[in-house]
């Protein structure tokens, strides 16, 4: 694994919306989080593809591609952040000059949702560690919960270091409206409990497994798996820990996505699977629930499957480093994950 340089005071962070941009009613929130980056001590470079959003993107593909490549190849830049995810970052993958990027200095890319499209592609194509975590638009300084507030602390660690995170106590069920309240924080009201899906594979009160972390938004990764842009086995012979979260899939789509990954052998080298909190509310009248879909697809696997994990469109989110060696432990209602940057 290639770990980018740690982020410290003075590090330069470039901001570009290579997927969805930020419309005018949300500019006050964008300005707030950009100012907070500066307050943290970072130098902020704002791109041109950012403050607009038309047809799910900040700018035409060629503009987004040019700016992303410019930032990726600029060795003075230490990290690249998008404001948030979106829908079709996948449209850039076959246009990126991956041979040119092989010569560039590695840098952190971080975020979740559609951002995970690029995170996994960079991990698979370049062997760089990438960071699946809270998106920029949620990373205000007044957000003080333990998972969100420590993102940059984790990214300040050098290769060979480790850090541990525990499960959140509560999560939010409703998104904040940043157009009305630019300084809003998460409303963490719902209890969190990670759960073991397939208890038949573990006879003790606790479960522990380890491996290299890979994953992201299930809606995307179920499509990308097997392509050169999500090839988890390419960079390691070690066991893998998949983490996957559902953004928009109905229960039947959710089943097909997970079942498809299983049938294509995605989990053959996995030591365990982390399934994030489902962001889709079940229709009580529907014949199949999301948990039933999950049980149908993964319930008979012989490896641990833990669900309702803090990887979700329903905040807060763990900071997970793609490519890091991780140890996951679940005992009763307590869970933690330790990541080693090796």
How would you describe what is shown here?
The longest helix is centred in the N-terminal third of the chain and has 13 residues, at 27-39. This protein has 9 helices and 16 strands. Helix 7 packs parallel to helix 8 (251-263) and helix 8 (251-263) runs parallel beside helix 9. The chain is globular. The chain is an alpha/beta fold and 342 residues long.
> Residue-averaged pLDDT, rounded?
96
Largest sheet, if any? 8 strands, mixed
The backbone outline, from C-alpha atoms, is globular
Oligomer: single chain
The level 1 CATH classification of the largest domain is Alpha Beta
Q: How many β-strand stretches? A: 16
Strand-pairing-aware structural class: alpha/beta
Architecture of the largest domain in CATH?
3-Layer(bba) Sandwich
Strand content range: 15-25%
Report helical residue fraction.
10-25%
- Rg computed from alpha carbons, rounded to a whole number of angstroms: 19 Å
Strand order of the largest sheet: 6-16-15-10-11-12-13-9
GO molecular function: carboxypeptidase activity; serine-type peptidase activity
InterPro entries: Carboxypeptidase_A_C_sf, Class_I_gatase-like, LdcA_N, Peptidase_S66_N, Peptidase_S66C, S66_fam
Domain LD-carboxypeptidase C-terminal: 210-327
Protein name: LD-carboxypeptidase
């Amino acid at each position: 694994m290639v770990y980018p340089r740690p982020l410290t005071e003075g590090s330069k962070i470039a901001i570009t919306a290579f997927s969805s941009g930020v419309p005018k009613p949300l500019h006050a929130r964008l300005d707030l989080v950009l100012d907070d980056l500066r307050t943290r001590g970072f130098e902020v470079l704002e791109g041109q593809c950012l403050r607009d959003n038309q047809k799910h993107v900040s700018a035409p593909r060629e503009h987004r591609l040019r700016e992303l490549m410019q930032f990726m190849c600029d060795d003075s830049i230490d990290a690249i952040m998008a404001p948030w995810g979106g829908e079709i970052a996948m449209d850039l993958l076959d246009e990126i000059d991956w041979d040119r990027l092989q010569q560039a200095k590695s840098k952190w890319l971080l975020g979740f949702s559609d951002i995970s499209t690029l995170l996994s592609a960079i991990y698979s194509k370049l062997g760089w560690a990438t960071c699946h975590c809270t998106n920029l638009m949620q990373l205000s300084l007044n957000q003080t919960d333990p998972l969100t507030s420590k993102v940059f602390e984790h990214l300040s660690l050098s290769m060979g270091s480790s850090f541990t995170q525990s499960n959140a106590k509560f999560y939010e069920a409703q998104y904040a409206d940043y157009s009305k309240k630019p300084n809003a924080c998460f409303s963490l009201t719902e209890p969190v409990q990670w759960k073991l899906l397939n208890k038949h594979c573990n006879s003790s009160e606790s479960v522990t497994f380890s491996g290299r972390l890979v994953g992201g938004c299930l809606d995307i990764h179920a499509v990308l798996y097997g392509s050169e842009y999500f090839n988890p086995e390419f960079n390691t012979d070690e066991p893998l820990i998949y983490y996957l979260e559902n953004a928009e899939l109905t229960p039947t789509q959710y089943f097909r996505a997970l079942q498809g990954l299983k049938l294509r052998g995605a989990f053959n080298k996995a030591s365990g699977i982390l399934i994030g909190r489902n962001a889709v509310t079940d229709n009580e009248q529907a014949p199949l629930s999301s948990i039933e879909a999950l049980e149908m697809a993964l319930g008979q696997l012989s490896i641990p499957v833990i669900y309702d994990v803090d990887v979700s469109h329903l905040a807060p989110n763990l900071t997970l480093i793609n490519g890091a060696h991780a140890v996951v432990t679940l005992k009763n209602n307590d869970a933690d994950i330790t990541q080693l940057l090796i």
